[in-house]
From TrEMBL:
Pfam families for this protein: Cas_Cas5d
Organism: Hymenobacter fastidiosus
NCBIfam families referenced in this protein's UniProt entry, alphabetically: CRISPR_cas5
UniProt keyword terms in alphabetical order: Antiviral defense
Protein's recorded name: CRISPR-associated protein Cas5
Length: 255
């Protein structure tokens, strides 16, 4: 199994929770639909044209949080829109809370997500194009961001793991990606160093109905650590391992 990994790094992030219509709240990690947009920007796909080509039937995607994060609310001016005629700003503005993800120290810290990609039997062509873009030197076709366009992101540390393998265990282990909640059997009460756990569970949008249609057809309920450390858990079923004995990463793809 081949697994492509790369990091998305930026100062701030915002992945809007689509069901909050009067407060711009943010998911802590990019949903699969956002990752599809990132891949589409790397490949140069036009807007709303990639929902079928990058669907979970063709590419399996995973994501991990590599740095500690915090969330803070800021009040921003938005256009007050009550009808299509108000998009010119004639109704004035309204202030709404806007949730921003950042590191603990904004001057020094960054937000870093690791993306994992592997193809199914029908996704080999797109996967090959993605590998060429990430590793071939040409870089992304369009600029990348962590959610909104003004939160720009860099693509770093791209690697192709040719010998990814599956495994399973009844032991508590470290997992470097989000994990589906239904796969979790046991969570330790504290970390190995005695510190408390910093965990979140979120329901993330996964796939759209089809190209040009932003209606959801699947969701992912996942659990993950927000302190930049791997999630320690005992899981049921198989997982994927990449790397060697010096630095092994265990991950699960968004299902």
């Amino acid at each position: 199994m081949q697994v492509l990994t790369f990091d998305l790094v930026g100062k701030m992030a915002h992945f809007r929770k689509y069901y909050a219509n009067n407060t711009a709240m943010s998911f802590s990690v990019p949903p699969r639909t956002t990752l599809m947009g990132v891949l589409a920007a790397i490949l140069g796909f036009p807007r709303d044209s990639y929902y079928e080509a990058l669907a979970s039937e063709h590419l399996r995607l995973g994501v991990g949080l590599c740095t500690p994060i915090k969330k803070s609310f800021h009040r921003l001016n938005f256009l007050k829109v009550e009808s299509s005629r108000d998009l010119d700003g004639s109704k004035g503005h309204i202030q709404l809370p806007f949730e921003v993800i950042s590191g603990y120290d904004l001057a020094r810290d960054t937000v870093r997500y690791r993306v994992y990609v592997t193809p199914t039997a029908t996704g080999e062509v797109v996967f090959g194009q993605l590998v060429e873009r990430v590793l071939g030197g040409s870089g992304p076709h369009f600029a990348l961001s962590l959610g909104t366009a003004n939160f720009t992101a860099s693509l770093l540390d791209g690697q192709l793991h040719e010998q990814a393998r599956t495994g399973s265990s009844d032991e508590v282990q470290d997992f470097h990606s989000t994990v589906p909640t239904e796969r979790v059997v046991t969570l330790p009460v504290t970390r190995e160093d005695g510190g408390s756990l910093s965990l979140e569970e979120e329901l993330l949008p996964a796939d759209f109905v089809g190209d040009g249609q932003r209606e959801l057809r699947a969701m992912n309920r996942v659990l993950f650590s927000t302190d930049g450390q791997p999630l320690r858990a005992r899981l049921r079923g198989e997982y994927v391992e990449i790397g060697d004995g010096n630095e092994t990463q265990r991950l699960l793809f968004l299902e």
